Design the sequence.
């Protein structure tokens, strides 16, 4: 279990670095709400207006034995992320005109170079 946590943390750190390189501002990481779950990354994506609030789910895998990292994000997980995003917005009382959920997949093979895939506006 410790190794999975370490790999997950590596993936989240890579995802944060990737988003910051794109000019995104990280607002929160690993935000938890009671028994519902956790938001990996909450960020503000730059857009011509004030920006878009984005809730990012990060999945990190070391191989493709059970599919790609993005394929590991299920419909049930997306529903939970939607509920968590609503809870985060309610607790932070900030107004955003645009909100979306993104998924970031990190494929980090042992001894290899990690590959990042970013799916924007993931639909339920």
Sequence:
């Amino acid at each position: 279990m410790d190794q999975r946590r370490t790999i997950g943390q590596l993936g989240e750190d890579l995802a944060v670095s990737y988003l910051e390189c794109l000019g995104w501002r990280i607002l929160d990481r690993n935000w938890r709400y009671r028994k519902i779950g956790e938001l990996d990354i909450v960020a503000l994506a730059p857009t011509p207006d004030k920006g878009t609030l984005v809730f990012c789910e990060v999945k990190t895998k070391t191989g493709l034995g059970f599919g790609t990292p993005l394929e590991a994000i299920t419909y049930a997980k997306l529903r939970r992320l939607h509920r968590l995003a609503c809870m985060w917005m309610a607790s932070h009382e900030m107004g955003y005109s645009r909100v979306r959920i993104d998924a970031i997949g990190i494929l980090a093979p042992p001894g290899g170079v990690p590959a990042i895939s970013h799916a924007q506006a993931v639909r339920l």
Q: What stands out?
A: The two ends are 29 Å apart (CA to CA). DSSP finds two helices and five strands in the chain. Helices lie at 2-21, 75-92.
